[in-house]
Amino acid sequence: MNVDSERSRSLWMQAKFxxxxxxxxxxxTEFLVIGGGIAGLSxxxxxxxxxxxxxxxxxxxxxxxxxxRTSAHLSYEIDDFYFKLIxxxxxxxxxxxxxxxxxxxxxxxxxxxxxxIDCDFARIDLFCFSPDRNGHKVLKKxxxxxxxxxxxxxxxxxxxxxxxxxxxxxxxxxxxxHPRRYxxxxxxxxxxxxxQSYSRTPIVSLKETAKGAIATSADGHSIAAKAIVxxxxxxxxxxxxxxNKQMPYRSYVLTLEIPNGSAADALIWDTEHPYHYVxxxxxxxKTLLIVGGEDHKTGAADDAETRFKRLEAWAxxxxxxxxxxxxxxxxxxxxxxxxxxxxxxxPGHKSVFLVTGDSGEGLTTGVAASLILPDLIAGRRNDWxxxxxxxxxxxxxxxxxxxxxxLASASKHLTKNLLGREAKPDExxxxxGAIISMGGQKAAAxxxxxxxxxxxxxxxxxxxxxxxxxxxxxxxxxxxxGSQFAATGDVLQGPATKSLGPIRSDD
Length: 507
What we know:
A hairpin with a 2-residue loop joins strand 8 and strand 9 (212-217). The protein has helices at 38-49, 82-89, 91-114, 133-149, 179-192, 304-318, 362-378, 383-388, 397-419; strands at 27-34, 54-57, 73-74, 122-129, 155-156, 168-176, 196-198, 203-209, 212-217, 222-230, 246-258, 267-270, 277-283, 286-297, 325-336, 342-345, 352-356, 432-438, 441-447, 453-457, 468-470, 475-477, 484-486, 491-493. Helices cover 27% and strands 29% of the residues. By secondary structure, the chain is α+β, with helices and mostly antiparallel strands.
């Protein structure tokens, strides 16, 4: 299982995808990629196209994870803004980051052409507008920053939205696509180049050897490889090293039908906190406005319906031609403490590499990983790799203060969860979950539609934090490091690799 088992279905999940089977025997390969999203398949594609032997495995369906739950913006402008990145990493590293993200977008376009992937790819402009004076100050700082970095063509422009605003920047040459159709094309290409893919094959442990590393699946099958890439949205290979440098956030997306040609085919962001993001998708004679935002720390809230109402109201105010709501879904992103994702050798390992910390640019970050990791695995120099190094030191205090506040918020949530009033088993309605106490233990209690009560330990099997019920997706979310579990306790997403445990007997 992975997050395609959550209740909501994204617009992209409606597209067909090549099927893969579970692994049923031991394997030996040159390279193993764990994770079938854009990061994993992009890395596997580059390795396979170079003639290397590669195997891809995913705990659920290939392309069924968080890549299928994005709003599919392709941008080398960043949602945290370059002026902040310059402050914490310096101008030189910010330039390298911009260069790598731009190269990633270019690589997607190249692959679409070379592999003849029909995924609605198009170059479009990004507009970032400010609804207030504080946001206008942000835009001024960002304009000065991107001019210093050599971001070509950025200029002040009119925002393609209704209502008042104070300033708007236009970033040319960005893009959009259909992410699942793109991954379908990658998957077919990997197979043509000799690569193998296996779905429903969760990896639960890794062990390094003198010849590389061995991964073991939940069914006990082993895969021996010279090098392993963990591209699982967040890594399970390090218990806390990377997880203490990034925080999980839940984001919400809805689509509304609008008349064809009534809105600009562009990426549109605002400077609110959390910010809103918009793009179009047209299929046959129907155009959908894709609107996202209302982010919150994972596990810190369970009010999706309220957030969707606010998101819809925001969209209708700025796009009054909007019709009825067509789709609603949510996804999870990881915000790195210093604004830069982690791509490179896993700390403490020799032959294990990872990519995580997607922030709002997970699609381009995943492709950037495919332009970095093959070099690092082969021992070749890659200047971009230094910027993304998972072993880098975090030295700038300002983002760490924000990060500490997020941790404190998580701790406060956990304290409330532990000490506040809890539900009683007979109070839990059908299709709902709640944390209850049983014999001095915290239990994750879920009553299914038949009325059967399912009880599991509420302690996340990664680091022991108390999970939180997610009413919208009908799953359990860990507020500390973002693990997700099905209503009945099975793992949907790591870093946890084990299902929620049983309730201990009083005997």
